[in-house]
Amino acid sequence: MNGFAIETRGLTKIYGGQKAVDGVDLHVGKGRVYGLLGRNGAGKTTVMKMILGLTSITSGEAYVFGQTVKGHEKRIYPRIGAMIESPGFYPNLTGTENLEIFAALRGTPCPNAVKNALEVVGLPYKDKKLFGKYSLGMKQRLGIACAILHDPELLILDEPTNGLDPIGIAEMREFLRGLRTQRGKTILISSHILSEIALVADDIGIIHHGVLLEENSMAALEKKNRKYIQLQVSDVSRASLILERQFHAGDYDLQDEHSLRLYDTALDMGAINKALVMQGVTVSGSQLCNDTLEDYFKRITGGEGIA
Predict the structure, then answer these.
(1) Rounded distance, CA 154 to CA 174, Å?
(2) Closest listed residue to residue 238, CA positions, set 264, 275, 189
């Protein structure tokens, strides 16, 4: 468990006989950005609330820094910053005044905590503008400033780009990257926007109807977005040997005993087919494919795409 900032085991939440979250095993590595991806209502927020102890766990366990939150709140909470759903602030106070209240309530020791947090998110210190007059992007930034006020190791952010315009989304993406690369933060971020998660996350979990369908590194998932030659053959072991020896091909995946994906698409398909047949390997199918990440997500969620 040492390599994970967050780990859940069989995490389950039942509301009135309905499973909102069903046996989720989540693994968020330290110093990484983990994107929890799913459609609205998939169970993302509920997972985050259970991890933080904001809602009860029906069954299963949630560990943060190797410990359950319940019973270890005083040790764990100071190490976490969170923004779940819409950030709640006093509309008739400025951003600075709102953060000063939170700093006082938390007993934040650093005297410049509010100023530092506002600088990190790009908001002015001691500005006269009231929170009620903030744009949606400024509200989201202030919510994150509140989450990082005490310089936590772990950030849990629920849909931080929700409702932002394209410029605001791009700025938020760069901000989150900076928190990881420059400040070493671990970030669990949820979103229903596939394209944005793909640009910021190191690892991705795909949740659908409360079930975590897949958990993988972004690098592994991006491989599914590559062009490849799909070969259907009678003997995949012999075919791979021929590809390596005769065509010096090393970048391929064995799918099953009769199927492989060859990622070096510059190779001559005709020559490959001929070589395989000449050496006793029957080729029943050979085609150039290009699956996108959207195609992949649609396939594993039963045809339902993610915006």
Answers:
(1) 18
(2) 275
